[in-house]
Target: Acyl-CoA synthetase
Amino acid sequence: MSNPFETDLDRNPANYQPLSPLTHLERAALVFPDHTAMIHGTLRRSYRAFFARCKQLASALADEGIGRGSTVSVMLSNTPAMLEVHHAVPMTGAVLHALNTRLDATILAFQLDHADCKVLIVDREFSELVRNALAQAKVKPLVIDYDDPDFPEDAPFAKGPCIGTRDYEEFLAGGSEDFERRAPVDEWDSISLNYTSGTTGNPKGVVYHHRGAALMGYANIIASGMARHPVYLWTLPMFHCNGWCFPWTLAVLGGTHVCLRWVRAKAMYDAIADHRVTHLCGAPIVMSTLINAPDAEKRDFSHTVSFNTAAAPPPESVLSQMADAGFEVVHLYGLTETYGPAVVNEWKAAWDELDPAARTRMKARQGVRYPALEDLSVRDPETMQPVPSDGETIGEVMFRGNIVMKGYLKNPDASAEAFAGGWFHSGDLGVMHPDGYIQLKDRSKDIIISGGENISSIEVEDALYKHPAIQSCAVVARPDEKWGETPCAFVELKPGAALSADEVIAHCRSLLARFKCPRTVVFQAVPKTSTGKIQKYILRQQAREGL
Model:
């Protein structure tokens, strides 16, 4: 028997269009044409002008043969050009590949070749680095120089030389404002390419689609509590998971992008106070920069600023200082493979009444699935069965939904492994609490097995962060003849603080079982990526090779 709800009710152009974040900007230019879309130094640009320039750039790229199947790579800071390429490149049907500005030339060359880069847009801050990368790469893209007119006069270094054959503004001006974007044939069409950190071997290319990027626009607004015309400060690098998709998100509500080339305390406070910034994102290091800034660099502001942070949950002391400074912290969790944040610690009002220790335990949870994620689970990776929701049984955190990547570019084996059993395997170990909130316990490779006992490095790090003298820390396994492995703590102290290894160990013993406490303490700067993530692979190597 036929189903009447599926008979003569076919999709057609009137009732079905592929989802794409590009429609967000089109609407903003129509509804908020004169509202300020971006601020950069002395520059103020309206949505009308922003949209027009994106169409011009797309037109110019199309004239160079850029379209479906092409890759446009960019080496840009958080500048207006970086916002423009996020819209203009996919307008042509091509894929945007934003390069990490902190990588070395060899890794950049690998990415350019692997992505088969056709056009490369380069900020002059990075021209020498990119010149070296191109010398190693096999591809020979059209290179376009971006000369930021608001490059700070007090920059600690001069801009590099032009290395391309075209200037960005001249190239853009050659395009037409009448360009009609090429809508995705299917919302599954690729929109961007992001590479994993590549801590072991070559990095993997993570491919996003238009559907996921569009849905993230709505989900980010809900998770961040954004109202109409938010003002967003770019402290998160836009090359990192496409800035968690916020370059596309803000247009939904006609928001204002405040560009920021470098994350510096004074520049952040000035932007917050002068432009009434409502939202910003970043790793815990950005919070540390704000609250530890000299008084001379701080500014007073009367409004509350929402700060979205990922990575390890901030210690209670940091959260308290952020609240005192006027920031409301929202804790997120995700991966490059999930378009950035896919889990949010949805705070419940009742938790405000808990004692400080209980509040800290609640804040340590990563949380529940993002509004755009269909399912979040903690499972046994061998049996693929969910672990008990008891807050104790450890399993692998797994994702399922429309904000999970398409897969790894040109790497079917890695894609198949990541999607085994119909779930995306994060590689993160965690527990599921009875109320449905997940909490990370470690990366699978970061669990320390000492004398047959599993030790969570995150648990030890949480204890370390409770010491007021510790600014940053990381715990890794150190080989031990008797125990197999023991915890080794790398500790970075706050400026002016003094602490001995014995004092660190005694502090941990007051909070943890003795077998979980560090046997070794190393005082040094803790290495971090450009996005503030601690580079544990460097520390693991140090611990293995001797200290």
User: Anything to note?
Assistant: The longest strand covers residues 470-480. The radius of gyration is 24 Å.
